[in-house]
Amino acid sequence: MGKKRIGVLGCAHILDRALFTPLKSLEHLGVHAIASRTKPKAESYADKHGIPHAFGSYEELLACEEVDFVYIALSNELHAEWAIRALQAGKPVLVEKPICLNTEELRRLMDAQAASGLPVLEGLMVQHHPWQSKIKRMVGENAYGRLLQVRSQISVPFQDPERQNYRSFPERGGGAFYDFGCYWLQFLQAVLGLEPLGCDAESDFAGPGGCDWTFRAALEYADEVRAELVASFELPGISRHTLEFERAVVTVDDFFRASMGTYRITIRIQDKQTGAVEKLAFEPQNYFVNQLAFFSDVLDGTKDNVPIAQSYERMAMHERLLALARAKRPGNPLASG
Q: Which residues form the Gfo/Idh/MocA-like oxidoreductase N-terminal domain (predicted)?
């Protein structure tokens, strides 16, 4: 099969590390066209990255018959509309996270996907790495006894005093939970499922525009297993999952690192009785290389796609937690789900 030609909607900063750099490792994929609502911006990206075609509208790119699939790197509030329009134009879609802003949008996208029969993949790049499967096996096999709790922190310091970034606008999917909560929910979905017995969430929504600059959430599972998240734009930079079992503490630290380039991910296992530490290190990998290779295989029919229903399950839980947090602003009584 020949080289697959990608059409890119949007000129977002993430393209350098999510697409252009990873493609250097994937000879069977290449960017054929890029579109922006400002044609000089598209032309600037095309000149810099050697892209054959630059368009001044998204419609023009979708009408390009030479494009094999579309990569959507637009602002969050535009994801649903342009994913649907790409499918209607006969293009498979890889869309940056979050796939949509709410379940209503996602239902429309799911209808469009079903009507087209074309694959749609939400760009949660961390799921394309074997460390998650390894953790899932540890839990499923009771490798270190019964799982007791899961603690996750995902924080990246971020400031936007002049409100120039989508993260400062609630209506555009701003706030720490929209940015980071999807990674937590995907991890729990893969390891424990997303059918908890109860849930809770809180934030003071003190960020720009009333966004959540720090968000805390918890899911309660059977056997008293509790999964907690701290997502923040205020706390020091951390991306860490810690799983406490009866006999060991298992940590995946700095798990975002493989989104910045080709790096090693290590699982640290500490025996609770002896203190002895075992490290399981994976060969250096790049999440975005893995994600693009996976989607290419899906298009070739050699791998099954991640079901879009998983995105819906995550978005439904996202909405539930966000509603809980908003319902109990400071001064309101504690609510629980």
A: 5-120
Rounded to whole angstroms, how far apart are CA atoms 235 and 251? 19
Residues designated catalytic: 97
Q: Give the residue from 7, 4, 17 showing the smallest Cα distance to 71.
A: 7
Residue in this structure with the two tokens 């694959």, named with its chain if needed? 119
Tens digits of per-residue pLDDT, 195-208? 999 999 999 999 99
Domain with CATH 3.40.50.720 in the chain: 4-123
What pLDDT is recorded for position 159?
Answer: 83
- Phi first, then psi: give them for residue 110, nearest 5 degrees: -65, -40
**Tokens describing residue 144:** 């270190």
Buried b (16+ CB within 10 A) or exposed e, 193-229: ebebeebbbbbebebbeebbbbbbbbbebeeebbbbb
Read off the tokens for 206. 């003190």
Residues of each domain in the chain carrying CATH 3.30.360.10: 126-285+317-327
Those residues of the chain that have pLDDT short of 70 are 1, 330-337
Q: What pLDDT, on a 0 to 100 scale, did the predictor assign at position 336? A: 46
Fold observed for domain 126-285+317-327? Dihydrodipicolinate Reductase; domain 2 (3.30.360)
3-state SS class at 98? coil
